[in-house]
């Protein structure tokens, strides 16, 4: 059963397994090395947690809008103006991810400056911890066997996080800062506006906004932007009961993304939505659609996998099982942390499976 697979890769299960393994090794060997490993793991959790809180704190001070913060098995999300604490089910997110964004009312220079400070917030939080820990270690008179024995490891861990996240490589905080510095004012403004459009309620988008998004999609070479715009426009047209235009956008997005190993995941997700939209429009699943759904493995997440399997196994819904499985899939869409994808699935699957 796929549920067992999701349990095995769940952050909470992995944490429990690590604690259990270290405890067993210590009891069998009486070697304090395993206690030290456990202490270092706890200190690493604290250091990474403060790194994400640093991003959140700086973003809040800079009037950024909060979307979510994931760390270990904790997930904080903002829905309808309220922050909710939920269980994080994603192993990749358990290593720490914070998502915040600006609205589109700021000037390019302000966006640039504030984004730089936002990305710097994580390393600065670890630098603060490093400084405090170093001062405590030097200034206080520790007894042998006290916390001073492991405090140097805490200092080293924070130093490692500061260095590795500040190095200007792609994907690091330093890399993001360097990219923002190099971007033109127009690019900074455009990226911020796209992010703002993506997370605002779909009803607030105007025809002028839609025209801007289409132009942005035509001119951009960034595949992540093409992916986001495709999903945003698809949601817009489905909400407006114009699925044919949404399907055209999907085809345009797929053509823009192209075929290649680097874009395989983005392409497969769009094909997944294309299959569901065509099923929604034609009230039947084509042979090509059936084959595409079979490519959705459990690695795509529990929501996608459950939905795909529900349709594959009983697309005619003769025994009514598909409705229950689609409802189960819809209940898991929160893991996507994406309001547009959640709403696309809700609109399409409500018609396909007559889900209430």
Strand and helix layout:
Layout: H1 2-8, H2 11-29, H3 33-61, E1 65-71, E2 74-79, E3 82-87, E4 97-101, H4 108-139, H5 151-166, H6 173-182, H7 185-199, H8 207-219, H9 223-239, H10 243-257, H11 264-282, H12 287-294, H13 302-313, H14 321-331, H15 339-352
Antiparallel strand pairs: 1-2, 1-4, 2-3
* Principal-axis shape: globular
Q: Termini separation (Å)?
A: 26 Å
How many E strands?
4
Q: What proportion strand?
A: 5-15%
Based on secondary structure, the structural category is alpha+beta
Notable traits:
356 residues, alpha+beta, 15 helices, 4-stranded antiparallel sheet, globular
Short précis:
With 356 residues, this protein is of the alpha+beta class. The protein has helices spanning 2-8, 11-29, 33-61, 108-139, 151-166, 173-182, 185-199, 207-219, 223-239, 243-257, 264-282, 287-294, 302-313, 321-331, 339-352, and strands at residues 65-71, 74-79, 82-87, 97-101. Helix 3 crosses helix 5 (151-166).
3D structure, described in words:
The protein is an alpha+beta fold. Helices cover 67% and strands 7% of the residues. The chain is built from 15 helices and four strands. It has a four-stranded antiparallel sheet, sandwiched between helices. A hairpin with a 2-residue loop joins strand 2 and strand 3 (82-87). The longest helix is centred in the middle third of the chain and has 32 residues, at 108-139. It is globular and about 75 Å long.
